[in-house]
Amino acid sequence: MKEYIGAYFQGREQVNGFIEDSVLNFGALSALEKENFASLFQIFKSLELVYVVDADTSIQSSPNIYPNRIDDTAKDISRSYLLDRLEIKENGFAFTAPYKSGATQTLCITVSKKEDGKIIFMDFDLKRLLERLKLIERHATFDSVQLSFYLFTGAFMGIIALAAVLYSLFDFAGNVMALNLDIHTIFKPIIAATLGLAIFDLSKTVLEQEVFYKSYVKNSKDEVKLLTKFLFTILIALAIETLMVVFKIAMKEDGEMINALYLMGGIALIILSLAVFIYLTQRKSC
Q: How far apart are CA 158 and CA 84, in angstroms?
């Protein structure tokens, strides 16, 4: 869903201007409260929730009003946490960044307008709003396939990560119970657990950003952090594997010293590449 966020921020002035101009055409929104804002829902097909909060007490004075139903359970609840974060402009409007609505479970923005001691909150479905303004073209079938693929892939990687960790646990426990402890039986579970951790981090990131939308705004720093963390985990696994090879050679189980040299060279090359990557990204962000 990051494409919707990007489209919103690119066309934010157009979106906000459209909403402000349209709402101002209604005059006082508080006058529409008697009809449960039916006229507002009729004009804005992307509007999915309206409620009113007292500006002085921060208490919600109206129920949650949806296009086809009314929920009274939210009435008389304190909304001070919302008012504390509002940056109301001179014309009385305030806009939030995109977020996932707890009431409707959709990606939305909240627009608020202050009128005569009241603040009217309006939640707009971001996708439908962007479609209305021709800022995006939605392909529902493709979106569903893409979401399902990310969900399946992320969950599958999570299962593989869990299997790797369980394998390392049972393998080590079995060797301990059999009193079969040596360099190989100690380091092998560590490598499996380390790879399981790296795969889990990748799975978690895919599910958070593409399925559950924990982070909506695309941040290149988070992507750099993920890649760096993943490479560090792989480096640890490779370093452990190199130690195993060296120990085998020292115990004369393997006479091919060149294998250890290849691994050391590969690790050194990855470390050098990672150092250059971190330096360039930090320099770019400065």
A: 39
| Least confidently predicted of 23-27, 125-129, 248-252 | 248-252
Question: How far from the centroid of its chain's Cα atoms is residue 235's Cα?
Answer: 26
Which residue is it, tokens 């299962």?
Answer: 159
d(C-alpha 203, C-alpha 161), whole Å: 9
Distance separating alpha carbons of residues 50 and 60, to the nearest angstrom: 11
Q: Work out the average pLDDT over 124-153.
A: 84
Encoding tokens for residue 253? 């189980």
Please state the φ and ψ torsions of residue 125, each to the nearest 5 degrees: -65, 115
Question: The tokens 């307008």 sit on which residue?
Answer: 113
As a whole number of angstroms, the distance between CA 40 and CA 52 comes to 14
| C-alpha closest to that of 246 among 260, 266, 263, 262 | 260
Q: Which helix (H) or strand (E) holds 166?
A: helix 140-177
Model confidence at 251, in pLDDT bands (50, 70, 90)?
low
Is the pLDDT assigned to residue 52 strictly greater than 90?
A: yes
Q: 255 - beta bridge partners?
A: none
User: Looking at the domain covering 2-132, what would its CATH class be?
Assistant: alpha beta
The pLDDT of residue 110 is 92
Helix (H, G, I), strand (E, B) or coil at 182: coil
- Tell me the longest C-alpha to C-alpha distance in the chain: 89
Mean pLDDT of the chain: 83
State the DSSP code for 61.
-
